[in-house]
Specification:
By secondary structure, the chain is α+β, with helices and mostly antiparallel strands. Helix content is about 35%, strand content about 25%. Among the domains are: about 105-150 and about 170-205 and about 220-260, Ubiquitin-like (UB roll) (Roll), CATH 3.10.20; about 265-335 and about 350-385, Ubiquitin-like (UB roll) (Roll); about 400-525, L,D-transpeptidase catalytic domain-like.
């Protein structure tokens, strides 16, 4: 047999481009080793099929897994839906309704529970020395249990229970109660008012005068212990809404001051008040100093109004002006004097004398204090007398008519000289016709005249006289009385007294009529 060319020779022939010699058809391909089976399939071009048992096993496992997952999902859906349906009629754990723990209660259980709580409800309100209790009947408490429960259940999403279980639930908004607020208001108000009688009331910040400083300073507000009825009622209302059994009142329910020390208006008032007390002025009467102002006195006239504006305390100022007036008003006062003939007399009453115009004094003082400039105020008078004199002394001049009822004698002095005199008959001392005492002024003169007396609207007498000289209105005066048989002595008390006038002999009346003039002073005394 011819020998086989080796690989090297085959390579060389190819490289040289020489065609190797033809092989016989019977040439056998050398057998390949067993491990080269795959290579043989590749060389032969024939594709082998995968093993069928392994493929079937994989498909079975996948099917089992799919079925298992479907079962798990179905079971999970059943559990999920079941729990959701449960919580559609039951409360979630950790659920509160007001002060009630509603955890896992069914709607029926919740309704029964709430109804029981309403029936047994009692609220105790305390705070400091205040204490009062209200039952459901006291306040007319009522509640629709089924509506409250259904509303509360709707506030939680049962289908989101996996998330809802992780958190707390406050469904208090569903707790809508009703009560007789008018009845409750009456009870709360009555209790608070009773308590406040002994409680310390709040004090507003204000301005107060400090005598040591001669000025006003701001004094701080104080809260006190008195309760605010409206605030207490509001707190009680809220407690009832949440079914609280206890309510402890706090400072929020105390009556609060209306004005606080940091109020800008209060600071402005302080400045205005201090400007007023710093104003000095004098009051004079008859050229004499009768009052010299000082901060302590002026401070008593100053107050704050409701708008925190500085104003005058009219009552205090009027009281001061009245005191000044009383010391320098002599009308109607008791005055003691010595007549030119040496007799010491005392007279009380009448319309003559000094009459201080207290109202005008107040207005002048207000103006001068408000201006802040100070100055002098001359004591104003509505009426003046002949001369200025201390109260209790003679303030009329040297020309006057002196009627001495005890002596039943009338004297006319002018410049200290007696220019006319006469006995008289005065009014009957019966309490109805007595001649009035006091210091007066002659009103008029009339000659002749008719004197007419009335009592209870009916004319009681009518007398014609020649000389009429009235000095108490037009009712009492001097006049001639030709019907009197005599004058002087005790005739006035012996049944011959007049209706109050001073009866004179005709000739004496004529002489007096010629001397006296309207405006002359008449002093009538015992």
């Amino acid at each position: 047999m011819p020998s086989k060319p080796d690989k090297a020779n085959r390579g060389r022939h190819a490289a040289k481009g020489n065609t190797p010699p033809a092989r016989a058809a019977t040439t056998k391909i050398p057998a390949m080793p067993p491990q080269s089976t795959t290579a043989m399939r590749s060389v032969s071009g024939v594709r082998q099929q995968p093993r069928i048992p392994q493929l079937k096993k994989k498909r079975f496992v996948a099917k089992v897994v799919a079925i298992t997952l479907a079962v798990v999902v179905a079971l999970a859906a059943v559990v999920y839906s079941g729990v959701a349906l449960y919580f559609s009629s039951h409360f979630m754990p950790d659920t509160t309704l007001g002060n009630f723990d509603m955890s896992l209660m069914s709607s029926k259980q919740a309704e029964d529970f709430i109804a029981e709580q309403v029936a047994d409800y009692e609220l105790t309100v305390t705070g400091k020395d205040f204490s009062v209790a209200y039952t459901s009947s006291d306040i007319g408490l009522a509640l629709n249990e089924s509506e409250v429960v259904s509303t509360a259940l709707r506030m939680t999403n049962p289908w989101a229970w996996p998330l809802e279980l992780r958190r707390a639930h406050d469904v208090s908004e569903a707790l809508v109660t009703t009560h007789d607020r008018s009845q409750l208001n009456d009870k709360v108000t009555a209790a608070v008012e009773t308590y406040n009688v002994e409680a310390e009331q709040p004090v507003d910040a204000t301005i107060a005068y400090e005598e040591d400083l001669d000025r006003f300073v701001i004094s701080s507000e104080k809260v006190g212990t008195a309760l605010d009825p409206k605030a207490v009622l509001s707190a009680v209302d809220q407690a009832i809404v949440t079914f609280s059994n206890k309510l402890e009142l706090t400072e929020s329910e105390l009556l609060q001051p209306a004005v606080f020390s940091d109020d800008e208006a209060l600071a402005a008032a302080e400045g205005a008040a201090n400007a007023m007390v710093a104003t000095s002025f004098d009051v004079t009467a008859g050229g004499e100093l009768v009052f010299e102002s000082d901060p302590d006195m002026v401070a008593t006239w100053i107050k704050l109004d409701e708008n925190l504006q500085v104003s005058f305390d009219d009552e205090a100022l009027a009281a001061w002006a009245g005191e000044i007036s009383s010391g320098f008003s002599t009308i109607g006062s008791t005055r003691t004097y010595t007549r030119p003939d040496g007799k010491q007399c005392t007279v009380t009453g009448g319309i003559y004398g000094w009459d201080v115009d207290a109202g005008s004094l107040v207005e002048q003082v207000k103006a001068i204090v408000t201006s802040g400039e100070g100055g002098t105020v001359n004591l104003p008078y509505k009426q003046t007398a002949d001369k200025f004199a201390p109260q209790g002394e003679q303030d009329w001049g040297d020309r006057y008519v002196d009627v001495d009822l005890a002596e039943q004698h009338v004297r006319f002095f002018d410049g200290g000289n007696l220019i006319w005199e006469s006995d008289c008959v005065s009014g009957a001392p019966d309490g109805k016709n007595d001649t009035p005492t006091g210091v007066y002024v002659l009103n008029a003169k009339e000659s002749p005249s008719v004197l007419i007396g009335y009592e209870n609207g009916k004319k009681t007498y009518e007398s014609k006289v020649q000389y009429w000289m009235p000095w108490v209105g037009n009712l009492v005066g001097f006049h001639d009385a030709d019907w009197q048989a005599a004058f002087g002595g005790t005739r006035y008390a012996d049944g011959f007294g007049s209706h109050g006038c001073i009866n004179l002999p005709v000739d004496k009346a004529a002489n007096l009529y010629g001397l006296i003039q309207p405006g002359d002073t008449v002093v009538c005394h015992w």
